[in-house]
Write a structure and sequence with these properties.
By secondary structure, the protein is of the alpha/beta class. It contains eleven helices and 14 strands. The strands form three sheets. The protein has an eight-stranded parallel beta barrel, surrounded by seven helices. A four-stranded antiparallel beta sheet has the order 2-3-1-4. α3 packs parallel to α4, α6 packs across α7 and α10 packs parallel to α11. The C terminus is likely disordered. The protein binds phosphoenolpyruvate and manganese (II) ion (MN). Phosphoenolpyruvate binds next to loops.
């Protein structure tokens, strides 16, 4: 249910209603909108809860939330959520550009990439330190050493760091270095991991599972939100279909669909979504045109020699050209695609 407070409802009245909601055995999420404050009351259905809340002080109305996901839903929060962390700002008209290698490989590789992507307009640095690889014999990432190199690249460039966390027992470690925790496609339905990142203070970039539906993606986001972490960025990264011309099939209708259903920002990953470097820039431009709030793109100083995903990685010059094309489209749509102000961590 959503408890919609009256326009001038006082803080005390909101707090009172939070306590009433909790007294019914439900969880209360307070969402302060531009127009008014609402309280999402989530949990198992309670008899007469609606009637009991309707009579509360400062309450305008109590409405059911029809979507299966609650806090993620547009019904609860009609205005888009903007997430800002360090140099990265996404949503509500700001377009973020997250770029960097698939895996962190060396100091030289990550620092030179950070400098190059920043100069081209990237607002965050990506790079995997803990890598989910299909084969156990493939490069598994530099682990904590990789996290240290990412932190060094952030110190040298000011770019916020986005990196994947694969397991619940590594959340604290990764969160101590990262600005944004990435949950990978393979872990989208690892519910204990979703709860663990929900309990961390860091924003989360949640990638769509390769066979997950939109409802499953949004319910996965709901696990994170339900732990009290409001900063979830959804990521369309392509799904598995019968097609073989691309590594995955990248559906861009999910971008306007998700904007319709949720207030959370949506980024698109044209690198994993296509699996071919020569297709990345066009799909990045298409994603921005479809309304994406950001991109996450693989960039490597020497893609041919990359330890992972080199075939879908752009070199510095290709990335610069892609970023410029995307910026022109974003500006045509009245959005900004410039580095946000650097905030302190
Ligand atoms: C990645 O971003 O390098 C990655 C492994 O992505 P995904 O989880 O989408 O496969
Ligand atoms: Mn990759």
């Amino acid at each position: 249910m959503i408890v919609v407070m009256e326009k001038g409802a006082s803080r005390e009245q909101v707090q009172h209603m939070v306590e009433r909601v909790e007294g019914l055995g439900l969880k209360a999420h307070v969402i302060v909108g531009t127009e008014r404050t609402v309280i999402a009351a989530v949990g198992e259905k309670r008899e007469h809860a609606k009637e009991s809340l309707e009579s509360g002080p400062g309450v305008a109305s109590v409405l059911p939330i029809l979507a299966p996901y609650k806090v993620a839903s547009r019904e609860v929060k009609p205005e888009p959520t903007q997430i800002t962390v360090g140099s990265l700002s996404l949503g509500a008209g700001s377009v973020g550009l997250i770029a960097g290698p698939c895996s962190v490989e060396s100091e030289e590789q990550i620092v030179s990439t950070a400098r190059a992507v920043k100069a081209a307009g990237a607002t965050a640095l990506r790079g995997g330190a803990f890598k989910p690889r299909t084969s156990p014999y493939s490069f598994q990432g530099l682990k904590e050493q990789g996290l240290k190199l990412l932190a060094q690249a952030r110190d040298e460039t000011g770019l916020a760091v986005v990196t994947e966390v694969m397991s619940t027992d590594e959340v604290d470690l990764v969160a101590s270095y990262a600005d944004v925790l990435q949950v990978g496609a393979r872990n989208m339905q690892n519910y204990r991991l979703l709860e663990a990142v929900g309990n961390s203070k860091r924003p989360v970039l949640l990638k769509r599972g390769a066979s997950a539906t939109m409802d499953e993606l949004l319910l996965a986001a709901e696990y994170i939100l339900n732990e009290g972490n409001p900063n979830v960025i959804l990521c369309e990264r392509g799904i598995r279909t019968f097609e073989e011309h691309t590594r995955f099939t990248l559906p861009l209708a999910t971008v306007p669909y998700l904007h319709h259903k949720t207030h959370l920002p949506i980024v698109v990953d044209p690198s994993h979504g296509t699996g071919h470097a020569y297709l990345v820039a066009d799909m990045a431009v298409a994603a921005i045109a479809a309304g994406a709030d950001g991109l996450i793109v693989e960039v490597h100083p020497d893609p041919e020699r990359a330890l992972s995903d080199g075939y879908q990685s752009l070199n510095f010059a290709q990335f610069r050209e892609m970023a410029e094309r995307c910026r022109r489209v974003a500006e045509a749509l009245g959005k900004t695609m410039a580095p946000a102000e650097l905030l302190t961590r």
